[in-house]
Specification:
- The protein is α+β, with helices and mostly antiparallel strands.
- It has two domains: 64 residues, no CATH class; 68 residues.
- Strands 3-7-6-5-4 form a five-stranded antiparallel beta sheet. The protein has a two-stranded antiparallel sheet with strand order 1-2.
- A hairpin with a 2-residue loop joins strand 5 and strand 6.
- The chain is elongated, with a radius of gyration of 30 Å.
- Bound molecules: zinc ion (ZN).
Length: 161
Amino acid sequence: MRLSGIFAARIWLMHTFTQYMYMENNTRRAVPLSGTYPVPQEESGTRSLCQECGAPVYGRPDKKFCCDSCKNRWHNRRARSSRLFRMKVMSALEKNYRILSDLLVRGTDKVEVSTLGQMGFDFYHITGYRKVRKSAEMWCYDIRFTVTESVVKSIRKVEYL
Ligand SMILES: [Zn+2]
């Protein structure tokens, strides 16, 4: 099996670094590059790989990144994907709200579940849900509606103030 270039380079870097550590702890005696030799547990110091770049991480056992810039990159990416996810949810809710509002403007308070689905309504993105006997009461912001197996009915805007 062939290793990819990056993976092979990473293995080589780890190998070289481990060897350097070994030399430091053995009065800088030259150690052959190839061949096996024991690396004492405490002296190797390697506990995990950087979550961002995959380089070996040295130091505290719970350390996850090799440096601050890797740590920042990882956290920034995670914050970005969380923000994107929230934006998708918000736009799905907005779309649902627009569909329900349009129905109300046209004076419609009842529609087939399948028709609402065809209009692009997404039943997974609502702001409230309550089970009522054989149906469900749902909210999309201030619009409330009742959902049975085949029909969405009693669509109305709820006055909160
Ligand atoms: Zn790193």
